[in-house]
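hey so i finally got around to running the thing on that chain from the lab meeting. sorry it took forever, my laptop kept dying and i had to restart like 3 times. anyway pasting the input first so we r on the same page abt which one it is
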Amino acid sequence: MSDAPPPAGLRAAISRRPLAAALWITLFLSVPVVVFLRHRPRPLPVLATLPAWQLTDAAGRRFGSEQLRGRAYVANFMFTSCATVCPLLARHLARVQANTAALGDRLHLVSISVDPVVDTPARLTEYGHRYGADPRRWHFVTGDAPALQRIAADGFRVALGVTPTTGDGRPQHFDILHSANLMLVDGDGRMRGVYRADDEGLAELTREASALVGH
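ok and heres what got predicted. didnt touch it at all, straight out
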């Protein structure tokens, strides 16, 4: 609430119309409170609690919930040979990385590949370079089928399907059966938001991620 005195015209009115002046003073002093309430971030719901998970990152190291403990992160599912929604998600995550640079180590990005046969550490590294990923904050990870199913179905509530084996005998891999969304997870492993990968969704994600980590 502001401690500034009322305007000069308002002070002059006090002596002529005390009751009206008192009402105007009350209105004047309440404006900062109304503005604060209007712009106060809404409490984020807890949408799900993720199970502990462990995958492998682009450097070939174990990476998962233990390494992210105490840090919020934005997650998505992808695979590098995807030519439709995955490049769009990668470009949007690059924008999130830039828009949240001031948050530093408090906010990470995690892209989870559902095609571990093709998406080797070297290929994930190249894919990250293509989109300007900072490996200190943006992690590309993958793992075997049970581990991917666990984090997708039991954690993020994302359905994974299996594509048919190709004619060249390539092993089956998962496909993504969900819309182009980004998920926000807090430092305790709880999913706190799901966002569309468009301008409005990215603005909301940036705002709520900043509020979540106390920026």
